[in-house]
Write a structure and sequence with these properties.
Blueprint lengths: L1 H14 L3 H12 L5 H12 L4 H26 L26 H15 L5 H17 L5 H35 L4
Helix pairs in contact: 2-6, 3-4, 4-5, 4-7, 5-6, 5-7, 6-7
């Protein structure tokens, strides 16, 4: 399986690499090095009164994703990144030091997109486009195996759904309690 995954990454390098994509993929990947893009989106939405529920859905999805991806799965699998198997390859970004599986950039991006979809926001469509581009950037940059990206997308989808459901539960509970609070 590893040979097939390396062949996919090598094909991308041989057939799709160009100056424009080098610049775009490095920038896109940079926007989510620590989830910055999605954290900023969550904060912006929380500040907007009508979008607050969607913002909290994205926020909770990112928390669920962080726990599942970075605290549980990456240490559990400890997978070596693909560039380690291609010593002559010059990376466009500094080599990530954490384990490869699952892709954190991909999982955070899919978590945000699926949280928005589950919360009923029309923003899920552009967020999904960015998530797909983010997933591709990790392959383009040779820092993840295709199965890392697939695993990240699946984990992110689950985290997005769970985060949005939890945010909905908390919202309903808060509204229920605020209606039952006697006025003084």
């Amino acid at each position: 399986m590893q040979a097939v995954e390396l062949a996919v990454l090598d094909w991308i390098q041989a057939h799709l690499r160009c100056e424009l994509l080098d610049t775009v993929m490095v920038f896109l990947s940079w926007t989510c090095n620590h989830g910055e893009l999605w954290i900023a989106l969550a904060l912006i939405l929380v500040v907007m009164r009508r979008q607050r529920r969607c913002g909290t859905a994205v926020g909770w999805a990112l928390v669920v994703n962080l726990i599942g991806c970075n605290l549980i799965l990456k240490p559990l699998f400890g997978r070596i990144r693909p560039f380690a198997f291609q010593p002559g390859l010059e990376l466009l970004i500094p080599p990530p030091l954490d384990p490869s599986f699952p892709s954190g950039h991909t999982s955070a991006s899919f978590a945000a997109a699926f949280a928005l979809k589950t919360a009923g926001s029309p923003l899920w469509k552009p967020a999904m486009a960015v998530a797909v581009a983010m997933a591709f950037s990790r392959l383009y940059l040779y820092v993840h195996w295709p199965s890392d990206v697939l695993g990240g997308a699946l984990l992110g989808a689950a985290a997005g759904w769970a985060g949005a459901r939890f945010a909905g539960y908390l919202d309903a509970r808060w509204h229920s309690q605020s209606k039952n609070t006697p006025e003084t």
